[in-house]
Each structure stands twice: as structure tokens, then as C-alpha cells.
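Protocol step 4 of 6: record predicted structures for both targets in the notebook before any analysis. Target 1:
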Amino acid sequence: MEKSEARKIVKEAREAWEAQEWLRSAELYEQVLAHYPDEKPSAVWWYDAALAHKFLRNWAKAYELGREAAARSPRGEQDPAFWNLGIAATIQGDWATARDAWEGFGIPMPEGTGEINASFGPACVRLDTGGEREVVWIQRLCPTRGRVMNVPATEGRRFGEIVVHDGEPTGERTFNGQSVSVFDELLLLQASELPTLRVSVNAAAPSDVQALVDSFFARDYGAEPASSFHMLCACCSTGRVDWDTSSTPTHGGSQKVWLAAPEAEARRLLEEWAAAAGRTWGGLQKAN
């Protein structure tokens, strides 16, 4: 391929990119890269081609092209080529490459090999399933994976599942005075075996509701009172929300509570909770 032809194809690739024709753009870049893999602008071409496949959720291609992009990018300078490779390698289960990608971006990794299961602190993820959107709290296991720590109300989603999220924040929440980012979900990586149940409870005071929540979380289960859910418009959801004041159960009385636990265990814990005066429950059923 002559360089004049390559320049023409790169121009077409950029035009396809601007039109969000991701597959065509990536294919055009790959045509040029097959002949010019190591020209001065090649690192950008590899990166754009890999990113296009990320947008397409073609993780095998994003991984393949992302390795080439990272190999031509400066290490330790937060180059996004390493971040996108870290995501793709994580989804592909190549932990050695994922670890190296995070190190290349500039994030120290815990010692060891294999799957990364460390404590990277809390964050929030905006679940997206068939157009429904729900922001949940996660405990981050690595720079792109987290375990869901709420009981989602969204049908089909569960407490304890592990999700992969993007790296660009799309909102902000507070946690004990600390600001944390909201990220968009890319993939449900590992499902949870805990079913979601729904129950009606009556409690004399907000502290009674909190006692129920605490009893479930103490056993690594989940509980989410209806009063802790907050409906937000899309604009507010992508802004800042003060979780410290909005997350606590706001009232006693009657309300629905979403639970994540085996049904027999949920019944036992509910009975223990209802042994105190002013607490009753009923109508336990599977939510999903």
C-alpha cells in the first residue's frame, strides 16, 4: 500500500469515526496498520481501532488491538491505551495482561498472580439492562471490577453480582463525607446465586428498619428498604448526590423491603427481628 493511499484510508477512518460508524472505522484503520504498524501516528490508529471495538462490545478484538496500542504507548503516564486494555484483558480473563496494563497506566497492583481481588474502595455503578437504569454501590475489586453491595430493584439484577464498569465518571455520590464516582456498567461478569425477595414490614421507628438491614448485612446478605430508593431524573443522576443523608431509612411505619438471601434464611431473620415489640412482617415473595 502506497502512503498516499494509506493517508486517504486514514481520512476515511476518521470520517467514519465522527459518524460513529465504529466497525467501518476500525476496519479501515486495520487496513492501514497491516502495512504501517509502527509509523509515528500508528499508536493512535491502534488505540482508535481498539476503542471502536470497545464501543461495539467486541472484547476479543478490543483486547487484540489494545495490546498493540499499549505496546506503543508510554508507561506510567496514565495513557488511556493501558486502561482500555486493562478492561478488555479483565473481561477476557487474562490476568497477567490486566495486571501489566494497570501498572502501565500507573496504578500499583497487589503482589501475586492471577485474578485481582483487592480492596480498591467504594464506588457506584449505573446498571443498564434493557433501558432501565439504577445506580448501585459497589466494592471495587480492581480498577474496573466491583461487587454490588445494594439489593437492586431492577428486574434480573442481584446483590453480590460482579460487574465490569467503564473508567470515565458519569456522576458523583458521597460516602461518609468522601466523594466517589459513578461509572457506567459495561458487563455483568459474574452472576449472584442469592435470590431477590420482597417483603412488607411494619416498624415503629427508623431504627427498627435499620436493625433489619443490619441483621442481613451481618450475615453477608442484603436488605434495601423502599425508603432508601430515590428516583432521579437523568440530569440529576449524572450530577452529585449526597448519599450520607439520602441513604438512611427515612421513616418507620409500613413499607416494602427488598432482601437478598435464601428464602429460609430470610424467614428466620425476619422472625428474629419481629421478636421485638412494634415490628411485624408479611407477604414474603420472590422478586426475581
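Target 2:
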Amino acid sequence: MHSRSDDPLDAALTAATARICDAILAVQASNPVVVIDGRSGAGKSSLAARVIRAWPLRTPAQLIALDSIYPGWTGLEEGAEIARESVLVPHGRGLLGTWHRWDWEREQTAEAHAVDPALGLVLEGCGALTPASARLADVTVWVDGPRSSRHTRALERDGDGFRPFWDMWAAQEDAHMAAHDPQNLAGISIRTP
């Protein structure tokens, strides 16, 4: 994995991917669970996609983003609980899990997606790492960065659709951090520029 030395974010994500892949190998399981949490715009989705591409095991892994599950802009906590209950718990028991995609335009649940317990799993999103989900994960990751950088990246990614909800979402992140202390639950902490 080579990074472009002129891009500090790329370098940080490349180094983080290598750390996570090493941790996955250390688990010595064919279907490890990686939970990636962090503030909006910190680089969780980019990191999760890189981990999937670099997945170090023979069997592939599934990627689930909480952005596909949150039931609307006020649903950080509820989305994280849906993922724990419908994805992580069944996966940990060797059972097929099912989650429903949230249709942001229609503001309702949409089609169902299955989660194969025989395959590895990467779950990423704000709110993903709680004491309950940490017990079901093999590798736990916290990603954060400076507020100004995160804000810029989030708005570049999501455009003006996110702008009016930034403060409301940040307040939910603050509540999650106060209630669950995900930074201290994480075995790997990543700081992006």
C-alpha cells in the first residue's frame, strides 16, 4: 500500500488501513468483525472502503455503512441500535442477519439486505461503537480529526443537503460520545488531518 506523499489524508488512511489489516490477521478468524466509529467527515467511510479493498483474508468481507440504516437526520442512536440488533448480534451467533436500507428521499425503510455470518464484516458509522457493540467486535476503531477539516470534507461529500443538519448531527455525536465513550472503547485510534 503506497500513499501519495503530498496528500496527508491519503497517508493517514493508508497507515490506518495497514494497522487495521494487521489487527484483522491477529484475530485468526475467517469472519472477523470490524467496527469503525468517529465524527462526521473524519474519514470513516473512506477508511472502511480501503479496509474492504485490502481485506487480508481469503474469504471476502461485507461492508455496511450506518448512513444506509439511520432512520433520518435524528436517528444516530436508533440506527446504531438497529445495526447492533439486526447485524452484529446475529453475525456473532452464526445466524443470517437482515437490515433495511433507509430511503432518505422517501423518509422510510426500503429493501432488505442479508448479512452472511460466514463472511467478515466491516460496520462503519457515527454511533457504531458502544459497550454493547464492542463486545461483538473483533477490531474496534475510532476516527477523528479537526472540526474544520471534518466540516469541509462532510460538506464536499454530501453537499448542501447536509449543511442545515450539521449542528443537529454534531449534537447527536456529542451525546453518543458522552454516553458511550467510543474513543476509549477503540483498540485503534486514528487521527486524520
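Step 5 preliminary note on target 2. The helical segments are 8-27, 44-53, 76-92, 131-134, 147-158, 166-180, 182-185. Strands lie at 33-38, 61-65, 97-103, 108-115, 120-124, 139-144, 188-191.
Proceed to step 6 after PI sign-off.
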